[in-house]
Design a protein that fits this description.
Helix content is about 45%, strand content about 10%. It is built from three helices and three strands; from the N terminus they run H-E-E-E-H-H. The chain has a three-stranded antiparallel sheet with strand order 1-2-3, with no helix packed on it. The longest helix is centred in the last third of the chain and has 49 residues.
């Protein structure tokens, strides 16, 4: 018994034009007839309105793209990749510096609290409340935040 196969949209051409050409056309038609993901709202509601015109059924955005498929993300050039990697490395260094500054500020606060607790214990032992007021104050300097 012969193997049955589905030809899809390629059936309408019959014996004309050759098998490979019909398969290419069928693949293109199958691709553009499916719904695609909208680049604006990320829902699977993008449909082809006409050649190169795509419309999202959810958010209503209409834009031009490829004739049979939605536009793909463009690849970056080598120079752009290098610039991005350099800026990322600088950003990582700044984040590390901020982390170190926060750690130092935290240690300073802990030391100030420990000194204050020690002064309070000493004042309790002596029965004098004057020493508690003279305890070490917390540092007010905080690290600057970098905008990303």
């Amino acid at each position: 018994m012969a193997k049955k196969s589905k030809f899809g949209s390629m059936k309408r051409y019959g014996v004309r034009y050759g098998r490979r050409n019909k398969e290419k056309v069928a693949a293109l038609e199958q691709e553009y007839r499916f719904t695609h993901i909208c680049p604006h709202c990320n829902y699977d509601k993008l449909k082809r309105l006409s050649v190169g015109i795509w419309v999202c059924e959810k958010c209503g955005v209409k834009f031009a793209g490829k004739a049979y498929a939605t536009p793909k993300k463009q690849k970056l050039k080598q120079e752009e990749k290098k610039d991005i990697s350099e800026s990322f490395e600088n950003f990582e260094k700044e984040l590390e510096e901020q982390r170190i500054a926060r750690e130092e500020a935290r240690k300073a606060r802990e030391e100030a609290k420990a000194a204050e607790a020690a002064a309070a214990e000493k004042a309790e032992e002596e029965g004098s409340e004057d020493l508690v007021e003279e305890s070490v104050e917390e540092p007010t300097e905080e690290p600057k935040e970098v905008e990303a």
